[in-house]
């Protein structure tokens, strides 16, 4: 089975590519902007006809799109998260119409949640950030493309290799130099929001199942931990694994983003039905793996 992975050098993409390479009989091809990729692809800029030529050369049985931008201005987000998937779908229709497309979406597409009500895939979408809005546009491009495609709407990923741009990755790097100093004080933002964390390795398993499960799949499937956890709980778990003996000082003013989306949780029952997937890593597992992978010396 030939699987083309776009964005394989990113946080999610690295884990996805590693998981797929372990599949018996799988031939995983990397596509991205890196000069080391087997196929040079820039979803934010390449025209569909150029993408189609790349797809024809790769001849994939499945395409996994892990490419995406989480930060930057609205134009950068739109080019990568909205235009990119639309161009990819146009190219697939021309060059590889029978290939299975697995596209990574985001729970940010839903927007604010209602406490104690996990959101299903049929719930209305109401993103409140440019990131969420552009990811939703990408999802709509995929689900309306008349392809063999599925969007995995991923919650808040955590685990080994979490980037410094994410709260878990940033906190791990703050804790590393603090060590066991009982006088250390780490000043953090508002940690009162609830998020649905999912281990990055469980995300990779979900991609494997989505790429290899025969027959049609639902257009959108939630991939999350299935429970809302206070961000504060993650911070204290990570501090415990770090052996941190100081004080985590939390601001009380709140943040604009937390105020907009104070509670987020996805219903993951459709993933169990369609893919036979459930998360196998607890949040404690994820945090332990994140800490173990955090470099001793912070660059």
UniProtKB/TrEMBL annotation:
Residues 3-223 form the NAD-dependent epimerase/dehydratase domain. It holds the Pfam family Epimerase. Belongs to the NAD(P)-dependent epimerase/dehydratase family. This is NAD-dependent epimerase/dehydratase domain-containing protein. It comes from Streptomyces rameus.
């Amino acid at each position: 089975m030939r699987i083309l992975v776009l964005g394989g050098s990113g946080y999610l993409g690295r884990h996805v590519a590693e998981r797929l390479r372990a599949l018996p009989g799988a031939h995983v091809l990397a596509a991205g902007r890196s000069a080391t990729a087997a196929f040079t692809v820039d979803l934010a800029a390449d025209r569909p006809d150029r993408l189609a030529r790349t797809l024809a050369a790769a001849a994939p049985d499945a395409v996994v799109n892990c490419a995406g931008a989480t930060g930057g201005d609205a134009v950068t987000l739109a080019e990568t998260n909205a235009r990119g998937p639309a161009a990819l779908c146009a190219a697939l229709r021309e060059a590889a119409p029978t290939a299975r497309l697995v596209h990574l979406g985001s729970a940010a597409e839903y927007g604010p949640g209602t406490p104690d009500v996990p959101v299903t895939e049929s719930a209305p979408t109401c993103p409140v950030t440019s990131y969420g809005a552009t990811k939703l546009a990408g999802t709509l491009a995929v689900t309306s493309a008349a392809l063999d495609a599925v969007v995995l709407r991923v919650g808040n990923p955590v685990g080994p290799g979490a980037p410094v741009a994410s709260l878990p990755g940033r906190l791990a790097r703050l804790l590393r130099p603090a060590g066991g100093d009982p006088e250390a004080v780490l000043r953090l933002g508002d940690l009162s929001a609830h998020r649905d964390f999912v281990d990055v390795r469980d995300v990779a398993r979900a991609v494997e199942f989505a790429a290899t499960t025969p027959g049609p799949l639902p257009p959108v499937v939630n991939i999350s931990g299935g429970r809302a956890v206070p961000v504060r709980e993650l911070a204290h778990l990570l501090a415990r694994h770090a052996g941190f003996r100081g004080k985590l000082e939390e601001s009380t003013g709140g943040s604009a983003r937390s105020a907009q989306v104070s509670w987020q949780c996805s219903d993951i029952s459709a993933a169990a039905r369609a893919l036979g997937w459930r998360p196998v890593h607890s949040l404690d597992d994820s945090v332990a793996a994140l800490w173990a992978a955090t470099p001793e010396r912070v660059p």
